[in-house]
From TrEMBL, chains A, B:
InterPro entries: Amidase_Cbmase, Bact_exopeptidase_dim_dom, Peptidase_M20, Peptidase_M20_dimer
Coiled-coil zones: none
The protein's name in its UniProt record: Zn-dependent hydrolase
GO molecular function, one term: hydrolase activity
CDD domains: M20_bAS (cd03884)
């Protein structure tokens, strides 16, 4: 194999820290919601670094930005990317690592005099988090044709501003049309955002795909009544039905086994008084599985049981889908290459699905795509306590370099294409 | 038996409607929180009616008001009473019926030339609802020595105003000391506020006592984590523990059987997001039983199971008591008299405990006390839809008259004491 590329970990950590100061929160972490002034400042900082390296910087109409280092041949680039927007209580690593890690790979390659046959690119995509505008993975979804541009531009965010207005307000939209970024290969380095790698003491997650996601909002309508004077037999307790659904969600996850997960994150009762039987309960159920048939089976059991609980209590039940993504399987050859690269670098690793959504899943239908995970301390993300140590980041970036350069056709100073 | 007293149902319903116009809400019902300007207006209207009848009107330092029609002999009065304050979404009948029903008994007796050996009185008590100031049953509790006057005067309401300030603001405090109202007998006519009488097609509830009430707030502390990336085995889901406690509360009520009731009226999750495992859940459990030992057994089972659910999920649990009242048994002889009176008047009836708290329970330790229930449409109360038809009210007032006049020693025009 070719020698491991030497990366400058201090330079990378310095950039992560510098970007983290934009939108920094008092207790740590940062808030850099998509297309806000903070996002604009972050974009300026990162594209400045792109330009400092002499990369060709392009921005498309939805604000996706990519920077290309030309290859010896023309053709589609090998793209390393992710996002730089955060949730309202975000950390410094989610998304940022994939972008600045990709930048570090290119800068290290330039400094080492390593060229590639195909162009090599680093990119960030607009509004991956979905914390200001729904849906999430917006920029990558539009770029790859999964989402319709005009529909997306009209979406209104939590602050009443549309995507089109927000793009204009910070001048984030470029002139490149949707689809201008057509990668040969898409690679995304990311923190795991879960506890598995840390719990198992492993350096690398070889991501095999993204779990299918099913978000359902369930509304139960019962009848408010006095908690003291209403006999149990005459009650229509919407809160009880919600509680039974929440317990059933856990029972489904237990019965199906990994990788099935199930979460009830929200429960709202009306009127929410200590001595009044709830007349209304609204709850959300988040179901995920890497296998579409299993995910559908989990949904079917949950919905059937929810209906049965409601009927037994004399309540009405309705539900609406908040989000539904089928599982995505990453390109088998590319996943094998990531795994082989980890082994070649002597890094402990395991295959695993991603439980969270990522830009990579939007690219997967169009080009070979894969992801590399590094550990998250305590499995925490979307939280100011999000943390991955520099010595845990380094192996991920080395592996990203290994796979990206190989896919792009690495040519070392001696002129030999690998 | 003596002839049934003829009451003027139109006059009574007219007064209920007139009082209901004070603090009337747009959709019906009314809001007449304790010691507000609306309450002051209501007090003025009702005491005006008292004075129109030539009754001796007295007000004590906490704003309780009673009006006495002297008996042939001196001695403690037979008191008919309740309250005229309402909750924020109150109806026209809760409390008001007991006061204006008592007034109707006295006015009808005067018009029929019926006298009594003991004085006969009608009264209303300050802040029974507890909707502005905690605790509820405040005025009757202070009057009967169950609550300390100075402590109560210092209580601050939901609007930041103390009881003492609110009393002063509307001039509701009188000169009579605490304990000046010492009834020989206390009788309270009230709407059931529950569905039992309507469901069983009965006219009268012969109230045997008030259920013991146990309100507990339970806080579960787990750990927030990503709903997609956190395996089920590594979760500490505070929301799941709350859901299991809610289901257990119902299981306890089912296992114990009537009159045990159990209600989880509030559940609040933090951070309350669809894709984040709840790190914190706060819920309330309302347990009631007419038997103190059974109520303690219900509490013990609930608390033990809640601890077990928390431990199994790796969560911490804490709880605090929001309210705790032991069951109150009304005077057996007086309850028998109410039941016999209902039978004598040919009214369908059943014995039942009160699931809600009432002023009568504050009097019960000091003098023979009892209550009469009339049906509530759909069991609804503390709601602008609260309703009891005039033809359902009339039997309650007739029975109140029957029992009150008998206890006071009815003397008809012919001069014969019953």
């Amino acid at each position: 194999m070719t020698a491991d590329l030497t990366i400058d970990l201090d330079r990378l950590m310095g950039r992560i820290a510098a970007l983290g100061r934009i939108g920094a929160l008092p207790g740590g972490g940062c808030k850099r919601l998509a297309l806000t002034p903070e996002d604009a400042e972050g974009r300026a900082l990162v594209t400045g670094w792109f330009r400092d390296l002499g990369l060709d910087v392009h921005t498309d109409v939805i604000g996706n930005c990519w920077a290309i280092r030309p290859g010896r041949s023309s053709g589609a680039p090998v793209v390393m990317g992710s996002h730089i927007d955060t949730v309202a209580t975000g950390g410094l690593y989610d998304g940022v690592l994939g972008v600045l890690g990709g930048l570090e790979v290119i800068e290290s390659a330039i400094q080492a005099g390593i060229e590639t046959e195909r162009p090599l690119a680093v990119a960030f995509f607009t509004n991956e988090e979905g914390a200001r505008f729904a849906p999430d993975m917006m920029g990558s979804g539009v770029a790859q044709g999964g989402l319709d541009l005009d529909e997306i531009l009209a979406k209104v965010g939590i602050d009443g501003v549309s995507v089109a207005e927000a793009l204009a307000a910070i001048g984030a939209a470029g002139s490149h049309p949707v689809g201008a970024l057509a990668p040969d290969t898409y690679l995304e380095l990311h923190i795991e955002q879960g506890p598995v790698l840390e719990a198992e003491g492993l350096a690398i997650g070889v991501v095999t795909g993204v779990q299918g996601i099913s978000w359902t909002e369930i509304t139960v309508e019962g009848q408010a009544a006095h908690a003291g004077t209403t006999p149990m037999a005459l009650r229509h307790d919407a809160g009880l039905v919600a509680a039974r659904i929440a317990a059933e969600a856990r029972a489904i996850a237990d019965a199906f086994g990994p990788p099935q997960v199930a979460t009830v994150g929200r429960i709202a009762l009306t009127p929410d008084l200590v001595n009044v039987i709830p007349e209304r309960a609204v709850l959300t159920v988040d179901l995920r599985n890497a296998d579409e048939a299993r995910l559908q089976a989990a949904e079917a059991r949950l919905f059937a049981q929810a209906e049965a609980f409601a009927a037994a209590e004399g309540c009405r039940l309705s539900r609406r889908t908040l989000a539904r993504f089928e599982p995505v399987a990453f390109d088998a050859t590319l996943v094998d290459a990531v795994e082989a690269g980890a082994a070649a670098l002597g890094l402990t690793h395991r295959r695993m699905p991603s439980g969270a959504g990522h830009d990579a899943q939007m690219f997967a239908p169009r080009c070979p795509s894969a992801m590399i995970f590094v550990p998250s301390q305590d499995g925490i993300s979307h939280n100011i306590r999000e943390y991955t140590a520099p010595e845990e980041i380094a192996p991920g970036v080395r592996l990203l370099a290994q796979v990206a350069l190989a896919r792009a056709g690495r040519v070392d100073q001696k002129g030999q294409t690998e």
